[in-house]
């Protein structure tokens, strides 16, 4: 009887556990397709193999491989998605399901376990005063990483739903910009029209030499003027994030006329100048961006949120000296500033001062109560402490990094040789069969080397595990 009750209680407990798991999983709130790069690489390799089969007159096998490469692989790419359900971010699709079945590895990460979110911007098109940005966001924590590439409404929805739930100390500057200012292009265009900004044709001929400074007009400005300045600042940030830099500059200019001493506004304007300098390759604009950041640092006074962001922007501009001053000022005001401690650790690492790196990571671990941030800072502190204390481990890691750099160079070279050899094989085959054969042979060898270097890169990218003491 007791055994029966025991089994019944276990059954009830299992049912409750399953219900709780289903509740935690929840429905999908937002999802984006995984980057198609790996799938495209696989399709290209299969296509190359089918070409070799055609050369050896194995037409049926070649036809099967072509069908796999350009029908089956694209279907896998379309169904492989990164899903956010309000609680966790996870991979969803046939490939992740197979990996989970055979390796028991669940590629998912709870929001509270996210340790760092980094976003990189790539310019894909430049026209006049506007550029087109493609954003690539890396979300990592507990040894798991999710790469999210921008590409329309799905990415914007994911950012709007997920980023506000992530602790702000986990976000870098660009991720914060996306969280606060990423908007729909059509709605933004309407907002710009309502704000009566000048047209892009007019702005193309307008001067960009707008100088900061001057006396504040906030004392004489009406509440309506201040509210309009606030709205113009937000509009400028939204335009900057989406790549409409000239219009963003006009919005900032109008806002600065009303509030020329606003530290956050000057900081935003400095980031605009940095974006324009990067888009145009203009060293003068970069110098103006640094000057604006210095002014923002002075106007920030005791703003412990803004000062670390200014320090990060100085690093982006390549000025480590002023970045250190901004971080140190933050620490002097607030000894528990996590972002400033991480910034100082980054600067110390650039200078090769491992003892300082360890100190700043340990300080960051002490001053924050967020479990994921503490775990990240302690892990980094332990890693650099091991490098500092164990010469053998330091030599192993330096050797690994050297190999990784060499393998990366070989991979790039092999990729170029493969592409060039395929062109030679196709063109040479029309003129001389012998030249075509040589081209295919070189391409095959280079492709094998490329595949080996891709596998080696994945192995060498992970940090070496320390050997247990004997």
The CATH class of the largest domain turns out to be Mainly Alpha
The count of DSSP E runs of length 2 or more, i.e. the number of strands, is 7
| Helix content range | 55-70%
> Could you say what the CATH architecture of the largest domain is?
Alpha Horseshoe
Rounded Rg: 27 Å
Strand order, biggest sheet?
1-2-3-4
- Which oligomeric form is depicted? single chain
Q: Please state the average pLDDT score.
A: 86
Number of helices: 19
Summarize the helices and strands and which ones pair or pack.
Blueprint: H1 2-25, E1 30-33, H2 37-55, H3 59-79, E2 81-84, E3 88-92, H4 94-103, E4 108-110, E5 116-127, E6 130-141, E7 144-149, H5 153-162, H6 173-181, H7 185-194, H8 200-204, H9 223-242, H10 245-258, H11 263-280, H12 283-300, H13 306-316, H14 320-333, H15 338-350, H16 354-367, H17 371-389, H18 391-431, H19 433-461
Antiparallel strand pairs: 1-2, 2-3, 3-4, 5-6, 6-7
Molecular structure report:
This protein has 470 residues and is α+β, with helices and mostly antiparallel strands. It has 4 domains: 27-177, no CATH class; 178-349, Tetratricopeptide repeat domain (Serine Threonine Protein Phosphatase 5, Tetratricopeptide repeat), CATH 1.25.40; 350-388; 392-461. It has 19 helices and 7 strands. It has helices spanning 2-25, 37-55, 59-79, 94-103, 153-162, 173-181, 185-194, 200-204, 223-242, 245-258, 263-280, 283-300, 306-316, 320-333, 338-350, 354-367, 371-389, 391-431, 433-461; strands spanning 30-33, 81-84, 88-92, 108-110, 116-127, 130-141, 144-149. It has a 4-stranded antiparallel beta sheet. A 3-stranded antiparallel beta sheet has the order 5-6-7. It is globular. It starts with a helix and ends in a 9-residue tail after the last helix. Mean pLDDT is 86; it is low at 1-24.
